[in-house]
TrEMBL record:
Residues of the full protein shown: 177 to 404 of 409
Enzyme Commission code(s) on record: 4.1.1.36, 6.3.2.5
Molecular-function GO terms, alphabetical: FMN binding; metal ion binding; phosphopantothenate--cysteine ligase activity; phosphopantothenoylcysteine decarboxylase activity
Taxonomic classification: Bacteria, Pseudomonadati, Pseudomonadota, Alphaproteobacteria, Parvularculales
Presence of keyword Lipoprotein: no
Designated name of the protein: Coenzyme A biosynthesis bifunctional protein CoaBC
Catalytic activity: N-[(R)-4-phosphopantothenoyl]-L-cysteine + H(+) = (R)-4'-phosphopantetheine + CO2; (R)-4'-phosphopantothenate + L-cysteine + CTP = N-[(R)-4-phosphopantothenoyl]-L-cysteine + CMP + diphosphate + H(+)
UniProt similarity note: In the N-terminal section; belongs to the HFCD (homo-oligomeric flavin containing Cys decarboxylase) superfamily.
Amino acid sequence: FFLKDAAGPLSHRRVLVTAGPTVEPIDPVRFIANRSSGKQGYAIAAALRNLGADVTLVTGPTNEKPPAGINVVRVQTAREMMSASEAALPFDCAVCCAAVADYRPEIETPHKIKKERGGLTDIPLTENPDILKTLSKMTEGRPRLVIGFAAETDDVLGHAEAKRNRKGCDWIVANDVSPGEHCAMGGERNTVILITEDGDEEWPEMSKGEVARKLADRIAGALKGPAL
Ligand code: CTP
Ligand code: CA
């Protein structure tokens, strides 16, 4: 009940945050997953909550403690993340931070695959649903503001701009995940480029908490106007 009454510029705004990795079982002991600490997504959920938003955090397994005062839905697979996100619609804004496994094994077997019999070098894969793309391309009840993340190497800005077009989302937060001293993966700090309809903005290196607060402020600015 107190969720709805939280004061702040995002009061009465419903926001979805996806975070963490998804985990796709191969057999009872093995899985496919992406690298994701969940730190940036959890920080964004907390920052949005602090501005008064009614936040639903749909999260894969992480070691992070969810912020107080938000709705938390724990999932394992991309398909679960997709259906939990759709089940919680409508949203004014969706922030897709999750590192979703792009593919899952076509067949999840309850039998442990034995390596001496082969079968582990050639696992048929099938593509997972794309949560960001699905929300971006909704024809009815689309969240007003859909935001994706793009962790890239090499031509970071080029890849991220192409991704924004391909997915149909409004904004992309891009970061360089080339291995190195300042890599955001698993760390506390992040250097991002915010890509919006108005162009690209490079933010200086800051903590993931600061990135989250800055993004939440920008979301609040963009959502001024009548609620859903
Ligand atoms: N995303 C998603 N569902 C997927 C794949 C990605 O919601 N099945 C979202 C991520 O949460 C992120 C954005 O899409 O906000 C970009 O994810 P990314 O993995 O960088 O994009 P892909 O289209 O999967 O491209 P690739 O991995 O080949 O770079
Ligand atoms: Ca991907």
